[in-house]
Amino acid sequence: MKVAVFSTKTYDRQFLLAANSPVQHELVFFEPLLNRDTAILASGFPAVCVFVHDQVDAPTLEILAAGGTRLIALRCAGFNNVDLKAASELGITIVRVPAYSPYGVAEHAVGLILSLNRKIHHAYNRVREGNFSLTRLLGFNLHQRTVGIIGTGKIGLILGQIMKGFGCNLLAYDVYKNPGLEALGGKYVELPELFANSDIISLHCPLMPETHHLINKEAIEQVKPGVMIINTSRGALIDTQAVINGLKTGKIGYLGIDVYEQESELFFEDLSGEIIQDDIFQRLTTFPNVLITGHQAFFTEEALHNIAETTFGNISDIEQGRPCANELRYQPEKSLIA
Ligand code: NAD
Fold first, then answer.
1. Does residue 334 sit within a domain?
2. Is 236's C-beta closer than 6 angstroms to any atom of ligand 1?
3. pLDDT (0 to 100) of residue 96
4. Are residues 9 and 126 in the same domain?
5. Is-above-0.90 flag for pTM?
6. Using 50, 70 and 90 to split pLDDT, how confident is the model at 333?
7. Of the residues 96, 204, 267, which should be mutated to test ligand 1's pocket, given the most ligand atoms within 8 Å of the CB?
8. What are the strands, taking DSSP E only, across 151-222?
9. Which of 224, 102, 221, 117 has the alpha carbon at shortest distance from 158?
10. Does the beta carbon of 75 sit less than 6 angstroms from any atom of ligand 1?
11. Would you say residue 335 lies in a domain?
12. Which of 5, 9, 108, 303 has the greatest CB tally within 10 Å of its CB?
């Protein structure tokens, strides 16, 4: 099938070309994001392949449909950037990669926890400058601390397993209980109890209307003073301004984020020679107890391999009329934030 592949970097091409070798789809790579301005590039392509920042909104979908596109293959699990209702009305099939690196994301969350706690990012710079002072590098044992996991699906469960290995107590909140988390000794509680008792809170639920700004002013009022908040899920789970206020008062002791509400303006690009216009993001970078990575939690060899293989498997399934387990169907009662 002829596939227009948007938002491609060198590393994407490497893994996509390798996985395409046995199936021989006709790939054309485009560096820009897909949006209503660039959708015209896909004219004449029955399939379009996109990633997390591509804007698959109704106007973009209309342009794609008019150009003959009938299939959109997401190279990611989250689909908050896709207007499923509009796609369904236009007869465009949407497929995704539901799981590609749950271990990679959970391990990255642990990396943020360890770096923030033991100030490894500060120590790295100090030692390179000949500063071997320990002042302000004091950390705490993870052993017997309480980790509150919000969203205990694939990634949340793995985080629970790893943190259990450190000897942590696990609290959890989810709309569905995962027996695997309970088997670890994790205890499901309501959010106020999780907020009040967790030393570390890590977010692993999807972005939906119900979870938008889950960490907001009211939530921050309930957390333990000095709490560590980790977000490797989606930026808008956190009200960034409220978190900045919490950091300023000291109520939040540490913040580790791999995702940011307005990240599509920033992440995945080298902006080191430019003036960043996002003042909220810039304020975040001034805190010594904030560690930000640019949506790299998924970024492992295994993930890129799995993403590429599953994506072409999905495209081949749809092309050959086979049922595809990774097809997303519009469910009005579960409408997501676009
Ligand atoms: P998953 O579907 O396996 O688990 C999500 C869990 O969230 C489920 O158990 C679900 O019941 C729960 N949930 C749904 N609504 C909830 C609510 N209102 N409150 C609490 N929990 C709720 O997904 P996953 O594979 O574990 O991924 C989790 C999230 O991680 C994804 O939604 C995605 O946004 C993010 N992610 C980030 C990266 C990255 O590179 N940073 C990579 C992959 C996934």
1. no
2. no
3. 97
4. no
5. yes
6. low
7. 204
8. 169-173, 187-188, 200-203
9. 102
10. no
11. no
12. 5
